[in-house]
Specification:
Layout (H helix, E strand, L loop, with lengths): L15 H16 L21 E6 L9 H4 L1 H7 L19 H18 E11 L4 H14 L2 E8 L6 H5 L7 E7 L3 H10 L3 H14 L5 E2 L2 E3 L6 H15 L7 H11 L1 E3 L2 E3 L1 H14 L2 E2 L8 H14 L4 H10 L13 H8 L1 E2 L8 H10 L11 H7 L3 E2 L3 H24 L9 H13 L3 H10 L2 H6 L1 H16 L1
Parallel strand pairs: 1-2, 6-9
Antiparallel strand pairs: 2-4, 3-4, 5-6, 7-8, 10-11
Helix pairs in contact: 4-5, 7-8, 9-21, 10-17, 17-18, 18-19, 18-21, 19-21
The structure holds S-adenosylmethionine (SAM).
């Protein structure tokens, strides 16, 4: 934090009776509708919980944020009850606990909560950390315990935490993860469907039901990233991997199938009745907030280009300067790709032969009055459309993705052959290689390549960590 100016915290003595009186008022308000048939127990969340519950709320430690047991030693001496800190879920050098230990302990805690929760019910996890690797540990732990995360939003607790008040860079708002335990009906059906595509669509149908239909910031509607086709695909893959099944569908076929089975609105997928509700609400709210995408690696660069070209198909010369401005935050381990290569591998350009593709035609006729009501092969339209890059429709995107996968796998093969640690590489290539190795039950390749990439990168990428963890478990198990 050197070079950061901030106002140090100011201490004022407050009247303890006033403070407690105010707290009491709040507590009375909070508990006035609660029926008091409660069970209170003090024990580690890694221990089993007897009984079944309807809902779980949990506020776990955030990595190495605070050393709770050490900080509590004073009053614990008075209370004569000490924290059993072997199972304290934190990252702590003096206790010899690494980030890995933190993740394993959190997984154990979540597993117990999973067992106690009734099928189809929710758990809320409060979380606040600026550190990507701790954030990913929580996501991975949730997944390994069997939960499916449906939504992440911010929570304004109004009362700031100790860290948020005393450190200038601390996150001021907590995040809330809403995760559910799949319902029994689905889990049972899945046993028979897992090897077929039916399992995929059953998973997606069930998952869509749990996702919020609308999200607002003030009066404006927000996009819901969890309904994006790529994120849905990742969720489905994660579920299959955790259950130990190969994924029975390629990402290309997934994109096509999704469009055939569900309803698309503004790049998000809905069940029919949800789409109707979404349409109704959009009519009254109207405007959208576009969340700004940060380009930091190949995947986010593709996503950024997709957003750009979907709104306006344009030429390389137009795209290039805008793209260059976005490259400030490129991750240092990620190989920087040429814009031409990114475009060639993921998008299509109209070369002036044949009909103008509808994506470009739509854009031109909406924005240029003289381009309206023209045939798709009109010379004026063709000239204006030539050399513009556009987002392919899913059927053509499939062919492109196959080509791209081939080149990614070629690159992965080079990593696999490497004898030295990899410093700069394509994360997308590692992911494609891990996925293929997983399908072929070639767990040793996953472990070998994972050992070649920097630990920090592995810890910060939930997808890689998932393949790696599962591969280690399977090798150990066999
Ligand atoms: C973020 S704090 C929760 C603060 C609490 N919600 C409050 O408002 O006072 C996390 C708590 O989890 C506790 N903890 C750590 N490991 C645990 C475990 N294995 N089982 C149960 N609690 C644990 C810590 O001691 C700490 O008190």
């Amino acid at each position: 934090m050197s070079g950061t100016f901030y106002i140090g915290s100011q201490i004022s003595e407050s009247n303890v009776f006033v403070a407690y009186y105010n707290k009491l008022k709040k507590l009375c308000l909070a508990f006035k509708d609660v029926e008091l048939s409660t069970l209170i127990s003090t024990k580690s969340s890694t221990d089993s919980f007897c009984g079944q519950v309807d809902y779980v709320f949990t506020d776990p430690p955030f990595g190495s944020n605070l050393n709770y047991s050490e900080l509590s030693s004073l009053w614990e001496e008075w209370l004569r009850l000490k924290t059993k800190n072997e199972v304290e879920a934190i990252e702590n050098k003096s206790q010899g606990k690494s980030l890995d230990d933190y993740r394993h302990l959190m997984t154990e805690c979540f597993r117990e909560k999973y067992k106690a929760l009734k099928p189809g019910r929710w758990m809320t996890v409060e979380f606040s950390n600026t550190n990507a690797s701790v954030w990913n540990s929580i996501q991975t732990a949730l997944l390994e315990a069997g939960f499916i995360a449906a939504n992440v939003s911010s929570l304004d607790k109004q009362q700031r935490s100790f860290k948020a008040v005393t450190t200038p860079t601390a996150v001021k708002q907590d995040l809330v993860i809403s995760a559910y335990k799949p319902n029994g009906g689905f889990e049972q059906r899945f046993q028979n469907e897992a090897e077929t595509e039916d399992g995929v669509w059953d998973f997606i149908r069930t998952h869509l039901e749990y996702l919020p239909v609308t999200k607002y910031q003030g009066a404006l509607m927000q996009l819901i990233p969890e309904r994006d086709s790529r994120i849905l695909f990742d969720q489905m893959v994660a579920y299959y991997v955790r259950k130990g099944y190969p994924v029975p569908i390629s990402s290309q076929d997934f994109q096509i199938g999704l469009g055939q089975r569900f309803i698309e609105r503004d790049g998000m997928y809905f069940l029919p009745e949800q789409a109707a509700e979404y349409d109704r609400k959009k009519l009254t709210s109207g405007h959208f907030i576009q969340t700004k995408l940060f380009v930091s690696d190949e995947a986010s660069a593709i996503q950024w280009l997709r957003q750009l070209l979907k709104v306006k198909p344009q030429t390389f010369q137009d795209i290039n300067p805008q793209f260059m401005q976005e490259l400030g935050g490129w991750s240092k381990n990620e190989e920087q790709l040429d814009l031409r290569e990114l475009l060639n591998q993921n998008f299509l350009s109209y070369n002036g032969i044949g009909d103008v593709p509808s994506q470009i035609h739509g854009y031109l006729s909406t924005n240029w009055p003289e381009m309206r009501n023209l045939q798709k092969n009109d010379p004026g339209l063709v000239a204006k459309a030539k050399d513009r890059w556009y987002v392919p429709d899913p059927n053509k995107a499939g062919d492109l993705e196959k080509l791209r996968e081939k080149s990614l796998l070629k690159e992965f093969e080079e990593y696999r052959q490497s004898t030295k640690k990899l410093k700069v590489f394509r994360m997308e290539a590692v992911q494609a290689g891990f996925k293929k190795a997983w399908q072929e039950r070639d767990y040793s390749t996953i472990i070998k390549v994972a050992d070649l990439i920097p630990n920090k990168v592995l810890e910060e990428d939930p997808k890689l960590l998932m393949w790696y963890d599962q591969a280690v478990t399977r090798v150990g198990g066999e």
